[in-house]
Amino acid sequence: MSNPSLLSLQLDHLDQLQQRYESALQTHGYDSLLIASGAAPYRYGDDQAWHFQGYGPFLHWTGLTGREHCWLWIRAGQNPVLWLFEPVDFWHANLALEQEPWQSFIEVRSQQTPEAPQLESAGRLAVVGDPWVLAGVGFGEHNPPGLLGALDETRVHKTRYEIECLAQANAIALDGHRSAREAFAGGQSEFGINLAYQRATGQREAEAPYHSIIGINEHAGTLHYQHYGTRRPARSRSLLIDAGVRYRGYCSDITRTTPGAGQDRFASLVHGMELLQRRLCEQVAPGVEYLEIHRKAHQGVAALLSASGLVTGLDDDTMVAEGITRAFFPHGIGHFLGIQVHDVAGKPTPPPADAPFLRLTRTLEPGMVVTIEPGLYFIPSLLDPLMSGAMKRHLNSSLIDELAGCGGIRIEDNVAVTDTGARNLTRESEV
């Protein structure tokens, strides 16, 4: 989509946000709302701050990541007002604000102090943001729970602008994933693969929506593996990379698993997971219970365990009922995606006992954007109890030992629910 079209959609997006916020304020009895962008706290005993990305509702309106000590005022029937913190400072540079059409909708002002602005005719005012930032604000009702819940609901159904931003975030991230695979094929270390990803996406890791997960060999079996080995592996058996990009504040969250040369058994598992993952993505549609997609993923993992010979002598339903599939696939099938990687309001009801880590328990509706990310892992702390228990005769311990050095598999796409089905934002950009 051309940039002029995207900027036009942003105006429609802001108009919809104004309507949603006015409704939320009226329902909860407020006349106006002041949103703090937030600020990075300093590390304990240090003069360096943590990296900052911004408070969700502020980004929902502005997309301005990295803007500390800014304030956005929302009122019924009036244009929002944005105060940008732009001090005269020789230590740090102020971010330049590119002129775009959204500034005809939001009035932009500049101030040199980080304190909340003085408001006139605010009426009954709510102030929302990080509590430590709001501690110095001596007016308004801070973070009222009912209103916060209503603001989270405004983010459940994405506008056309938001979906196009998410699509662009996917397209950029896929450039990084291609470069990461090439670096892996060239024998690079995890650190080298991370550098290849950053170069291709043109985004510093600190600006990314989350710390990239880059696991070679057995490291792929740690779900949120957080380290980057600097040594080239003696043998590159597998790569799992879970990495995304922020675009105008919106996140992509993509995972791919690549088998190394000569890893035929593992490659067959990856191929089977790819087929399963695509079928699960095709299940996304209005009226579908997200939990049912999760449960179908377990049925698919059971079929894959049986077909590969990892588990024998049990039917698929028994594998699920006995918890065998949960030992190989311990996490949920995915989550909401938007301004935050794990976007808000996903669990109006708690997940069931058989899916304790599921982050989304809603019925799917048009405008929702979700991830679909089945996996199959060789995690000793989960498999060892099975291999020493009543089910051990059904587990192929020699094959498990052989594949354990490959760590695991996860494949993840970002999928938007449409009026009639789904739009896979990841696959449409993958070539």
From TrEMBL:
SUPFAM superfamilies hit by this protein? Creatinase/aminopeptidase (SSF55920)
Residues of the Peptidase M24 domain: 164-419
Query: Residues that bind Mn(2+) 2, according to the entry?
Result: 242, 253, 412
**Top class in the EC scheme:** hydrolase
What keywords sit in the KW lines?
Dipeptidase, Hydrolase, Manganese, Metal-binding, Metalloprotease, Protease
The catalysed reaction is:
Xaa-L-Pro dipeptide + H2O = an L-alpha-amino acid + L-proline
- State the Gene3D superfamilies in the record: Creatinase/methionine aminopeptidase superfamily, Creatinase/prolidase N-terminal domain
The free-text cofactor remark is: Binds 2 manganese ions per subunit.
Residues annotated for Mn(2+) 1 binding in this entry: 253, 335, 373, 412
Entry superkingdom: Bacteria
The Swiss-Prot or TrEMBL record lists the needed cofactor(s) as:
Mn(2+)
Q: Which residues form the Xaa-Pro dipeptidase N-terminal domain?
A: 12-151
An example Gene Ontology molecular-function term: metal ion binding
Instruction: List the InterPro entries.
Output: Creatin/AminoP/Spt16_N, Creatinase/aminopeptidase-like, PepQ_N, Pept_M24, Peptidase_M24B_aminopep-P_CS, X-Pro_dipept-like, X_Pro_dipept
User: Is-annotated flag, keyword Transferase?
Assistant: no
Could you state one GO cellular component term attached to this entry? cytosol
One of its GO biological process terms is: proteolysis
The EC number(s) attached to this protein equal: 3.4.13.9
Which protein family is it in?
Answer: Belongs to the peptidase M24B family. Bacterial-type prolidase subfamily.
Tell me the function of this protein: Splits dipeptides with a prolyl residue in the C-terminal position.
| Name this polypeptide is given | Xaa-Pro dipeptidase
Q: Which organism is it from?
A: Marinobacter oulmenensis
